[in-house]
């Protein structure tokens, strides 16, 4: 068996090859791409022999995606994606100075897959369809996060020189394209006060807003409210910054809508989509995000508990001496945690069982978030059972043992 530590960078890989005893056989710096993979295969063949089974090659690397990782998996090697934080803690066995080098990281990765392989998680064997869902779902969510950051910058800018705009466009939502177009048309208090109701209504008509006359009147009134002013050059500079942010959000809105269609397309083409959509609180976008982060490798989660642990919905117990506390998991997949919280919140409205379970947690004096997390934890277990048995969600079956019948 050969153990390989692969410390990757943008354009190269530092690798170390060890035998089962931990003896270093070779260390090399390999280029990214086809040439690098070919040289890695040569190293493996040279030190493992022609009759080496690819499954006896174990690779530790700090990522679970990308063409390099896929090439390793396609070669039949065992590939373990190791969290950089785990690598940093493992390296403390050698030194506490905090020193770092690419060769040192490659050595630590090789040692980890040799010594602690049973404690590590191999890269999931997700299907091509699941990987495609993951790519588009993450891209869609990242664009939404970027829009939120850009909006916060725009809002902060407007508060400093044009607070009336925040009030005027509150009903329209300042991230909406029509509100942003009005802001671009009149980016200063003076130009905003000159906007006519006809001009405002024309923009609202183009974007098919309802109650256009009332909304136009509200916007015009707010923009004409007296407010403190800044010197004209300073106002012009703020207006330029606001216009840039507004145009960027409009572009993000367009790409978010386009990517949303891709998310739905890839998700609905996946064979597990019907099971996910049968779950309460899950629609196409949320379902795509949950599927993307869980993957579809049927062997990845040995039990519902394993899936809950990965999801971060199950609590962590900390016990030392006579002290024992149960806490929420905060080191987790944040994308998955966000999607599951959205599902749990939606399930409260459509699932009587989820609602009863939530109310039961609140009756035990659990806070809103802990109670919602417990609902999400329960739903993850139900999802695991549905995927394992290839059956759709059934409300009565899912919550049957939580229904207490009155005793005669």
TrEMBL record:
Domain Transposase IS116/IS110/IS902 C-terminal, chain residue ranges per copy: 275-358
Species annotation: Streptomyces kasugaensis
Superkingdom assignment: Bacteria
BP terms from Gene Ontology: DNA transposition
Protein name per its UniProtKB record: IS110 family transposase
All residue ranges annotated as the Transposase IS110-like N-terminal domain in the record: 4-163
InterPro entries: Transp_IS110-like_N (IPR002525), Transpos_IS110 (IPR047650), Transposase_20 (IPR003346)
Gene Ontology molecular function, alphabetical: DNA binding; transposase activity
Pfam families (UniProt xref): DEDD_Tnp_IS110, Transposase_20
């Amino acid at each position: 068996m050969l153990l390989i530590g692969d410390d990757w960078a943008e354009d190269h890989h530092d690798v170390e090859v060890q035998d089962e005893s931990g003896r270093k056989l070779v260390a090399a710096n390999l280029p990214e791409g086809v040439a690098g993979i070919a040289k890695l295969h040569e190293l493996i063949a040279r030190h493992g022999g022609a009759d080496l089974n690819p499954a006896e090659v174990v690779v530790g690397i700090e990522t679970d995606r990308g063409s390099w990782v896929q090439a390793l998996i396609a070669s039949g090697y065992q590939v373990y994606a190791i969290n950089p934080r785990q690598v940093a803690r493992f390296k403390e066995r050698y030194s506490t100075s905090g020193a770092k080098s690419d060769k040192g990281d490659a050595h630590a990765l090789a040692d980890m897959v040799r010594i602690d392989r049973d404690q590590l998680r191999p890269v999931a064997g997700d299907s091509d369809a699941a990987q495609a869902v993951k790519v588009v779902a993450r891209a869609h969510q990242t664009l939404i996060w970027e829009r939120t950051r850009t909006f916060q910058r725009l809002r902060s800018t407007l508060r400093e020189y044009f607070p009336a705009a925040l009030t005027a466009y509150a009903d329209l939502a300042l991230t909406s394209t029509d509100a942003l177009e009005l802001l671009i048309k009149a980016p200063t208090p003076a130009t905003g006060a000159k906007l006519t109701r006809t001009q405002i209504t024309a923009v609202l008509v183009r974007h098919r807003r309802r109650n256009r006359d009332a909304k136009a009147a509200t916007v015009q009134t707010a923009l004409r409210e007296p407010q403190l002013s800044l010197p004209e050059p300073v106002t012009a500079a703020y207006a330029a910054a606001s216009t840039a942010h507004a145009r960027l959000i409009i572009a993000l809105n367009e790409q978010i809508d386009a990517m949303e269609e891709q998310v739905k397309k890839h998700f609905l083409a996946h064979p597990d989509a019907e099971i996910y959509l049968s779950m309460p609180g899950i629609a196409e976008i949320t379902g795509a995000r949950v599927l993307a982060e869980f993957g579809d490798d049927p062997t990845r989660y040995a039990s519902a508990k394993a899936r809950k642990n990965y999801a971060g919905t199950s609590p962590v117990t900390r016990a030392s001496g006579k002290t024992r506390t149960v806490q929420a998991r905060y080191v987790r997949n944040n994308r998955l945690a966000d999607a599951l919280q959205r599902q749990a919140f939606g399930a409260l409205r459509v699932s009587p069982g989820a609602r009863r379970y939530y109310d039961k947690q609140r009756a035990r004096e659990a806070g809103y978030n802990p109670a919602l997390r417990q609902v999400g934890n329960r739903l993850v277990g139900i999802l695991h059972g549905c995927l394992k048995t290839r059956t759709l969600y059934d409300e009565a079956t899912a919550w049957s043992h939580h229904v207490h019948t009155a005793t005669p």
